[in-house]
Write a structure and sequence with these properties.
heterodimer; A: 560 residues; alpha/beta; Rossmann fold; six-stranded mixed beta sheet; 21 helices; 20 strands; B: 255 residues; mainly alpha; 75% helix
Amino acid sequence: MNAQKKDRNNDTPLIEVQSVTFTYGAKDTGRALNGVSFFVDRGERIAVLGHNGSGKSTLVKILGGLQEPSEGVCLINGVNIQEMDFKELRRTIGMVFQDPENQIVAAMVEDDAAFAPENQGLPSRVIQERVDSALVRVNMTHKQDAAVSELSGGEKQRLALAGALAAKIDCLILDEATAMLDPKGRLNIEQALRELHRAGMTIIQVTHQIEAENFDDIQRVIVLSHGRIKWQGLTLDFWNKAEELGFELPDEFKFRRYCGDRGLNFPEDFAEINAPLPQTESYHPEAPAKFSIKGLSFRYTDKSYALKDIDTEIFSGKWLSIIGRTGSGKSTLVQHLNALYKIQEGKILLEGQDLPQKGEEVHELRQKVGLVFQHPEDQLFSPTVREELAFAPKNAGFKGKDLDEAILYGLSCAGLPEELLVRSPIALSGGERRLVAIASVLSARPECVVLDEPLAGLDASYQRKILGMLGKLRDEGRTVITVTHDLDMALNFSDRILILRDAGKIQDGAPREVLETLMESLDPEAWPDSLRISAQIRKVNPTFPLLYNYQELISCISRT
Amino acid sequence: MYFTNVNLGQYVPTGSFIHRLDPRAKLFSLLLIISSVFPSKGVLALGFWVLVLALAVKASKISWGIVLRAARPVMFLVIFTFVFNVIAVSWSKSITQGIFTSLFTASRLLVLMLFAVLLPLTTAPLELADGLDALLSPLGRFGFPAHESAMMIGMALRFIPLLMQETDKIIRAQLSRGARLDQGNIFQRVKAFLPVLIPLFIIIFRRADEIAVAMEARGYEGGAGRTRRKPLVWHWTDTLVIAVCVVLVVVSFAL
């Protein structure tokens, strides 16, 4: 086997996909992949880009030998993957998937990293060496004795990466591996990948979004659409085609191109620009308070604070974004607003009245204040979309014609067609399911709607739909509250921002008022691209304003 | 806090003497202890086991709070046993005797549960699976899927906390949509719980599917040919612990 492998090393690509087709059940209806062909050379780093439903997850499974293609073959070192020895295949290709929780099998870090070499039947000493070196490569050595439950999401995903590396693989396939992580977690994975690639690892990254930090080292891009390869070529050429192919460029790339086209060096050439400062509009809320929160504290059973002495007002008919790291108390705060958490200390007034805490009044409150949890599509349960949308209004006592109207109202808010009502929510695409889930809260016509990370994991087109919907709800006079890590949405779309840190309030106010506090409390990786760019310009040009909107940034530069 | 603070026997690493014991020794000791607590008749014998339990918890360096919290889901069983016993015994004998016997039966059950809960608290899931695998493997000769059963239990222990969190989140989401989970008779309640159960099952199946794929991607194909980073090694302390347990059992029968 080894001798054979060596002979092929020079001319055969590591992976060769030859007209692969994959069909679910019925022959022509459910084609996930349709005549896909490409190759990957040793040591290459490529990206497979595709929107939800493009067939990329199926492709990942076929590349990993976890799914047999209906037609065509996938060759590894010239050998058909289906005929390859299982152990040999698993020593060649390692995989990292989206949800770190579903890849970690053990409760302790080292035990989990050892899983693959244990399956290979290696002696204990070798297993330990593999574990040690894998943890070094993902920069997790300091956590080697930790329990998995103590790790952050990003650290868990780095452990999953170590788990794949411990099999001593030649090629790493990542399926949306950074989609569930915060900016810091993404950056750490990216650093690990960069070093792996430099050390000669072949890397295939499958993703639906272009991240600035991801794309610097990628040599080739393959664009997948409706099960076919729509485009493939060098990353450099991809940039000119990206928008045409239906991908939004990150602002940082647009800016690089802007500079490139004009022969500008960044940031040196911006030192002399004399840009006018944008007006610092201070916020005079003419709107009455929807919620007045006074001295609200909440403690867990172990006496640690989830919320500490929060004082704030949430204005009626405005859009508030609540920003803070994981564990800062954001979700505990919003779950007080519809009495999912009972007030321990302090006060919440809803339009001047004490927030009800028990009995029938709580049900009335929950109709007034709708709460959409993170990944709400996981909470759908009805056989049809109509029944799903009817659940909340029915519980709120809507009947007959009112109920029908409520269902249609929810549907129209989400911009979904009426044909969808008879469909099963489970059978819809990810983006549609998210919209149905949000509509199923809006159908009860809440005066105030709270959404936890409404854009997480969605394509740009669905993100725009949801942003548009939230803007419309606000314009109808409803109070909108979003809990998010997404500074772009918070700064550019919401009216006010509340910043929480370690269970306490840091500041609240209009986006521009809280901007500097935001920059202090969150790492630059979390900032919108324009803000990072303008902050860099500011270093060489102290009069340059801090901007968080790309159009503003460009118009500010081009005016001079 | 619908489900947030429930710890259903999740591993608590403290690195104590008990944590370091061979899982086979722990499983075997637990078997010995249970088989002797269960038939214990006298208050003295039970008191003796409470003392042993206290020493074991002390040695594990796990706080009583965590141990009791881990046993909370089975408290219902203990209370149910107590109430049922009170009624049954009071019916045939006197109320005082009814309360006394029931208190004794319920405490015996409680002590038993607490011993049992100590096992997953002090043993990492995969290690526990290895131990079960080793103890069950003789049954493999009769076609019993020893490795698979052990792995299943290990994986279940790993994922229980996660599923508790998911359940909590779904309950909150459906309450937000006005679900009335706590009203009506038993049939209405069961029906009202469907909006929680259905999404939960969908999530469980999806997770199970993804975990299976991820395990296959890391080369898992059952127990055959698998080695261990830390193979189970039987130390003299393990033999000592078993010996001590045998002595304890003999003493408790003498009491």
